[in-house]
TrEMBL record:
Keywords: Nucleus, Transport
GO cellular component: nuclear pore inner ring
Skewed-composition ranges (Polar residues): 589-605
Highest taxon, organism lineage: Eukaryota
Name of the protein: Nuclear pore complex protein Nup155
All residue ranges annotated as the Nucleoporin Nup133/Nup155-like C-terminal domain in the record: 641-1280
Gene3D superfamilies the UniProt entry points to: 1.20.58.1780, Nucleoporin, helical C-terminal domain (1.20.120.1880), Nucleoporin, helical domain, central subdomain (1.25.40.440), Nucleoporin, helical domain, N-terminal subdomain (1.25.40.450)
């Protein structure tokens, strides 16, 4: 029985897309190209260094002195009276009630701070520490195991491999006498999505003496290192390890600020000569492995932790005096007091800027931007001032500026300044450039928020991305690009009265607030928002709200959708400036052109400031709309609307995280093991797919954005139409008016076409993401293991872009592997098929679902216990497979049928597949017309059918091998799927199955399948079985093949077929053709045999029916050819060894008597010449006598003696004795006797005896001899001397008579 093949699905792989597939592919390619240009454009926003003009200026720069640096949007004349809030006050949570009571026990020291990574706040009262959830005030934990006052608190990560896995964090507490590390564990949330409960282990993991170093601040690195800033101005590191060694303890403290010689200086001397400058702030730039310190006197130091984060080298330090001096030299008009004191240091991550590494904020709110490396990406070597950013209030018309600052923070381009309004109240300043991402210089909005208490701590909370916002390692784009995938940034302000959570509003949040405040979309504020952000960007922001499916946002979504339609503009055609070779409008947005630039809109707005980059050439028309002849040669611009550009922008930004990312990544669970796992999580894929679904619904709701399919035109057709529309007449004005209208109509048409492409791309991409999500949910490494090595290698390199635009085959293979996993486990595919149909209907179509059901039934049939159940399942599987036969991976499905021993089912399925792939029988027409090269459609149809028939032929070959007891080599003959499983039947069973398959084929009416099987029989050497076929297609096949094949095999089969079918005359004609064909593939012996068989066939035909005159003539012609061929055979025998060329010629053709005679004459074959003359019936006595003389001369010369010559003479004379005209006895006798006399050959009577032996009668011999003797030839004188008697003639005949029987 056949070996079980590898389980795999087998639907629609390798098959063309649906009839609309070509149009879909064109739409995907067009929209995909536009999408990629937009994705590239989102990486071209000015960087922080560009906006600070770092690099363009050789010296540090300054900003903040002009009104444009901090534009006012709330004034009556400012940008439409738009007032944007940047920050909103969230909920206020008081301190836990039980915690407030502990303030009554305060004696020495009280501190407060935040652990943002755990959503917790902390409070120390003397030697106790309390930690709680700041958003709810719940989950209060405390630690009271210390006896001394706590001076510093820090939450750090543990070093890998030191502690057990349940210890997720370390709480570092420093007192005047010791430093302890406590283990922190997090239990599972009580409710799904709720906060985890925090537990502090009661026993310290490590404890070390402080040795007089009063720790003031603690910070940790991602790798688990713990740094301590001390009152003595030194930077310490707390080093711990799992075990103690000879040279190091398990926990020790290292001073990174002192040199190796400092241990030789007495402590009282170092204290006397040193000026104490406590370290107040430590900051770690985890993206670059750099540590910054800030001291009480404003000194900033830089420590390089190395590429691996395990080193500590101080590379630079700047005192506050040096910082003020450097800043004063740049901003000479600014009071130097604004540059001190140093209030805060904040690292700038590598994702935010490659050229700026640190922001220092002073007590006046001035931000000083520093770089530490001479080149981007280099290790820190110095601390150089690059830019000074003054706070609001330094412009000429400024009315207020921050004052009395006591706290500052900088994070991701946002500066937070906390100013004391009174002893109990603070004011928060927020400065951010998120509203101006495309500005060529740093432009920020300012907002203030009153805080109800004095702030003790202010920290940004970790970001809350809904999905990965950009590929790993990519520079961070502006917020406008990623706002759809990020929740608002949050900050926590902590005081002794409670916690207040603050939210920084994204542009979409600001638009939400404007819509809610106005209660309608058609307001001046909303219109001003579109002006501020430009139509395209504002439309993309609108879509975030319009696509919301939250029930509470229903009204808001409707307003946003309305605003999108109101202010999104219309596509336009704009004439270029006179003499322009091509348009270069700074407002043009060409999504059909080479690139796209952010902040650039489609509708020109003269009042709008120019964007940061010039637009690329948009879609150009062949003539301008102006009647001015100077513009006639310049093409016009089609400018898409903000709605169009916003839709593309939003779709591009949704797909940004995955579009250029790999679909899978390698993961090694152990040595020597490499698995392919999904690069994106199932949650990310689900979120992206859901967002695309919402956008697709919005597109479906608006018919102006979605024209019918029949109304679409290609870009080339659009250009042609515009060429014809824009021909202007003599007057020009009327033509120009018509041209404007037609321009507008064609611009609308172009926009609709582009949006149609976008809709198709969104729908298909959503389904591809759905497919990858399903594969991810089913363990990607398990599914991909079923792929071939070639497919696995291709998948490793494939991005989501590739999978979407050109990866249909890979999608099919993934689905096949997924379904195959279920089938191999004997599981039902109904659930996964329904899931695939729901999430990826374009990839997994209804036919695919039917195919999976068929495969499932085939698997069940193989495991069925009863024959009846097996037959039922096989029948159902075959019926299902035949329904979708045209889209199947036929070879894989047929392998499953073979594994179930349903060989006849394979034939039925192949017949069904061939019919569905070529329903009009184009292939048959192509075949019957001789397969013309110009019939491309017929050739393709023929190939399609041939692919189907190959499955049957391979199955037959496997059965034949099994019937002979042979097995196929395990080495594959070609790349791709493994070869079809061979049947493991006994030889007799395999032979019977092969016969059944052949019978099933012969019963079909598919002529091309017959032809394929006939050819297979010929190749397999089954000619005898082929001749047994009784089919109306066998004779045309043999006739066609015999004319096309170069050899004689098909002609041999053809005459045998005619002979077996009783058509003897046709067989004779084929045999005659075989005999007469030119070439060495048939030798002369076979030619003679063919002619002989042809003669017999004609005679048999005459016996069956009354012979026509033509048959008699044909028979006579054949008989003559046989006679000549036999003579040719004699010539061939005589020529052997004499002339290879002659042998080749004699074997290659049937020669006529003239050619034969010439050949014999050239070779000196007199006997053959004589035979040819006889055969031809040529009666030329002189020629015959001459041939005999030459023949006898050669014979006698070769023999040498009478004894040797006599038999040859006898044989030769006997051959022609019955034809006197060709056997001249007188010439023969005279020549023999003359030769005998001259050479004294004995006995003298040998010649006469030889002739008598040949059948010449004595009277005839006597008459000949008497005639010769009576001529008195001198020859007889010699002859007489040989005999003793006087009469030599008597002596001869006496001898002859004595040998004869006397009568």
């Amino acid at each position: 029985m056949p070996a079980s093949p590898a389980v795999s699905m087998s639907f629609s792989g390798g098959r063309p897309l649906a009839p609309a597939g070509a149009g879909l592919q064109e739409a995907l390619s067009a929209a995909g190209a536009t999408l990629e240009r937009l994705l590239a454009a989102d990486t071209q926003f000015p960087s922080l260094a560009d906006r600070l003009r770092i690099g363009s200026q050789p010296c540090p720069t300054v900003s903040g002195l002009h009104e444009a640096d901090y534009p006012s949007l709330g004034a009556a004349g400012g940008r439409g009276g738009l007032g944007l809030r940047q920050i909103s006050a969230g909920k206020k949570v008081p301190l836990p009630a039980e915690l407030v009571e502990h303030f009554n026990h305060l004696q020495c020291n009280c501190m407060m701070g935040l652990f943002p990574e755990l959503d917790r706040a902390w409070l120390t009262i003397d030697n106790d520490i309390y930690v709680w959830l700041f958003e709810t005030g719940a989950n209060l934990a405390y630690y009271d195991g210390l006896s001394e006052t706590i001076l510093a608190v820090g939450l750090v990560r543990p070093r890998p491999g030191v502690f057990q896995a349940h210890i997720q964090h370390l709480l570092c507490l420093a007192t005047p006498l010791e430093i302890v590390l406590l283990g922190v564990t997090m239990s599972r949330p009580a409710a799904p999505g709720g906060p985890a409960e925090m537990h502090v282990l009661p026993e310290p993991l490590f404890s070390i003496a402080s040795d007089g170093a009063y720790v003031t601040t603690v910070v940790g690195t991602p790798s688990g290192r713990v740094f301590l800033g001390a009152k003595d101005g030194c930077l310490y590191e707390l080093v711990y390890q799992a075990t103690e060694s000879w040279f190091s303890r398990r926990c020790r403290k290292i001073n990174h600020s002192s040199s190796a010689l400092s241990v030789l200086v007495p402590t009282f001397l170092s204290a006397a000569f040193s000026d104490e400058d406590p370290l107040l702030q430590l900051q770690v730039d985890a993206s670059r492995n750099v540590l910054y310190t800030r001291s009480e006197k404003g000194t900033v130091q830089v420590y390089d932790l190395g590429d691996d984060g395990q080193q500590t080298v101080r590379v630079a330090a700047l005192s506050q005096f040096s910082i003020v001096q450097a800043a004063e030299g740049v901003a000479r008009t600014v009071d130097p007091s604004n540059f001190r004191p140093v209030l805060d240091i904040s690292p700038v991550t590598a994702a935010e800027s490659a050229h700026v590494q640190l922001v220092v904020t002073t007590g006046a709110g001035v931000r000083l931007y520093f770089s530490t490396a001479p080149t981007a990406g280099g290790r820190p070597t110095s601390l150089q001032l690059r830019h000074i950013r003054l706070p609001p209030g330094f412009a000429a018309n400024a009315t207020q500026r921050p004052a009395a600052l006591h706290m500052a923070r900088y994070s991701d381009g946002t500066a937070l300044l906390v100013a004391a309004q009174s002893e109990e109240l603070d004011v928060l300043w927020l400065l951010s450039g998120d509203a101006f991402p495309a500005a060529g210089q740093l432009t920020e909005l300012q907002s203030t928020l009153a805080l109800d208490w004095h702030t003790w701590a202010l920290q940004p909370l970790p970001e809350r991305p809904l999905v990965r916002c950009e590929p790993a390692g990519a520079p961070r784009p502006p917020l406008v690009v990623t706002q759809h995938a990020r929740l608002p940034r949050r900050y926590v302000a902590l005081s002794t009265r409670g916690v207040q959570v603050l939210e920084q509003l994204r542009p979409v949040d600001q638009l939400r607030a404007l819509l809610e405040d106005a209660g309608r979309p058609d307001s001046d504020a909303v219109r001003a928002f579109f002006t501020l952000h430009t139509e395209a960007q504002a439309c993309a922001t609108c879509l975030i709200l319009a696509c919301s499916d939250a029930p509470q946002d229903a009204q808001l979504a409707a307003w946003a959708e309305r605003a999108f339609l109101l202010y999104g503009g219309e596509p336009q055609v704009v004439a270029p400036p006179a003499g322009a070779g091509h348009p270069a409008s700074p407002h043009s947005t060409s999504l059909l052109g080479a690139s796209f630039h952010p902040q650039q809109v489609s509708t020109p707005q003269p009042s709008r400031p120019a964007p940061f980059a010039a637009g690329s050439p948009p879609l150009a028309l062949s003539a301008a709309v102006s009647p001015d002849t100077s513009l006639a040669a310049a093409p016009a611009e089609v400018l898409f609307s903000g709605k169009h550009d916003g839709l593309y922008l939003y779709a591009a930004r949704l797909l940004r995280p995955v579009w250029a990312s790999r679909v899978v990544r390698e993961f090694s669970p152990g040595p020597g093991q490499v698995h392919l796992v999904s690069a994106a999580s199932s949650e990310e894929l689900g979120w992206l797919s859901g967002q695309l679904e919402l956008l697709s619904r919005l597109l479906q709701r608006h018919s102006p954005l979605q024209p019918p399919f029949a109304d679409t035109v290609s870009t080339q057709q659009l250009q042609q139409r515009m060429n014809s529309y824009l021909e202007q007449d003599e007057g020009g004005r009327m033509a120009a008016g018509r041209g404007h209208h037609l321009h507008h109509q064609q611009a609308l048409q172009a926009e609709r076409q582009s949006l149609l492409h976008l809709r198709e791309l969104i729908a298909y991409t959503r389904q591809v993401l759905g497919l990858v999500k399903i594969v991810t949910d089913h363990q990607t490494h398990v599914v991909t293991e079923a792929l071939s090595r070639e497919d696995q290698s291709a998948l490793r390199l494939m991005t989501f872009r590739d999978l979407t635009l050109s990866g249909r085959t890979m999608c099919t293979q993934l689905i096949a592997a997924l379904i195959g996993r279920y089938l191999s486990d004997n599981g039902s595919t109904e659930a996964v098929s329904a899931q695939l149909r729901a999430l990826a209907p374009a990839v997994f179509r209804e036919e695919d679902a039917i195919s999976s059901q068929a495969s499932e039934k085939l698997m069940a049939a193989r495991n069925a216990s009863s024959p009846s159940e097996r037959q039922r399942l096989l029948g159902e599987a075959l019926a299902l497979a035949k329904r979708v036969a045209g889209q199947l991976q036929l070879a894989a499905v047929c392998q499953q049928f073979q594994a179930a021993h349903d060989y006849e089912g394979v034939v039925e399925l192949v017949l069904a597949a061939a019919e569905k792939r070529d329903p009009q029988e184009v292939a048959l027409h192509y075949y019957r017309n001789g397969e013309p090269a110009e019939d491309l459609q017929g050739r393709q149809a023929f190939r399609e059918r041939d692919e189907c028939y190959t499955v049957v032929l391979e199955m037959l070959s496997a059965l034949v091998r099994a019937s002979h007891g042979q097995r196929q080599s395990p080495v594959p003959a070609r790349p791709g799927a493994p070869p079809a499983a061979e049947p493991a039947d006994q030889p007799q069973q395999a032979q019977r199955q092969a016969e059944r398959v052949i019978d099933a084929v012969l019963k079909s009416r598919d002529e091309l399948l017959h032809v394929a099987v006939y050819n297979w029989m010929v190749v397999e050497g089954m000619s005898e079985r082929l001749l047994q076929v009784r089919s109306p297609y066998i004779e045309p096949f043999l006739t066609r093949s015999s004319g096309a094949a170069p050899g004689v095999q098909m002609l041999d089969l053809l005459w045998k077929h005619y002979e077996r079918s009783g058509n003897h005359l046709a067989a004779a004609k084929v045999l005659a053709k075989l005999a007469e064909r030119h070439g060495t593939d048939v030798d002369l012996a076979r030619r003679i045999e063919y002619l002989a068989r042809a003669v017999l066939c004609v005679k048999s035909s005459q016996m069956q029916v009354a012979a026509a005159a033509s048959q008699g003539e044909f028979l006579h012609e054949l008989e003559e050819k046989v006679e000549v061929a036999r003579v040719q055979w004699r010539v061939l025998e005589a020529a052997r060894g004499r002339s290879p060329e002659a042998e080749t010629r004699l074997n290659a053709d049937l020669l006529d008597v003239t050619a034969l005679y010439s050949l014999c004459e050239r070779l000196g074959l007199a006997r053959c010449q004589l035979a040819i003359v006889v055969c031809a019936g040529h009666r030329d006595a002189a020629l015959v006598r001459d041939l005999w003389r030459r023949l006898l001369a050669a014979l006698l010369q070769q023999a040498g003696s009478a004894e040797a010559a006599a038999p040859a003479v006898t044989e030769l004379a006997r051959e022609y004795r019955g034809q006197p005209a060709y056997c001249p006895l007188d010439t023969i006798v005279r020549h023999l006797e003359e030769h005998s006399c001259r050479h004294s050959m004995t006995p003298p009577e040998w010649a006469a005896a030889a002739l008598a032996e040949a059948g010449v009668s004595l009277p005839e011999l006597l008459s000949v001899y008497q005639s010769l003797y009576s001529q008195d030839d001198p020859l007889w004188t010699v002859f007489q001397s040989l005999y003793s008697q006087d009469d030599p003639l008597w002596t001869v005949f006496q001898s002859l008579y004595s040998q004869d029987d006397p009568l």
